Amino acid sequence: MIKTILRAASLTCGFILLGLGGAQAQQFPPALQGEWLAQSPEEERSCKRGDFDKMESDALMKVTARATAHYESGCRLQGLKETGNTWQVRLVCEGEGMRWQDQQIWSLQKISNRNLLIMVTPKSGFMHVMQKCD
Description:
Elements (H helix, E strand, L loop, with lengths): L1 H21 L11 E5 L12 H4 L5 E4 L3 E3 L3 E11 L2 E10 L2 E14 L2 E8 L4 E7 L2
Antiparallel strand pairs: 1-2, 1-8, 2-3, 3-4, 4-5, 5-6, 6-7, 7-8
């Protein structure tokens, strides 16, 4: 009887550990990670890697494996669904004493030798065009 209980407990623990080990937190793919600069039709903008850490512009965004960082706010990745070079992104964000959730559509495009990230918030229709920092 005790052997049966121990065997069942061992199997249960094994399944739990397998479940924990197999469950990976979602991450932004490497192509999305890095520093990005918002583009503006009024002025030509460019940036280099490392500019985000200098915090000289609020038009910069840094994307890591599981988060985004902005001048006065940051977001944690909550969900990511990929279709080709487009992603549905769910974020939980905080900044300036506020907390909110956001859902966006991100699309990578290469135009005129520039790596661009087009970010659209469907709820508001707001769109950002970002260029990857070299």
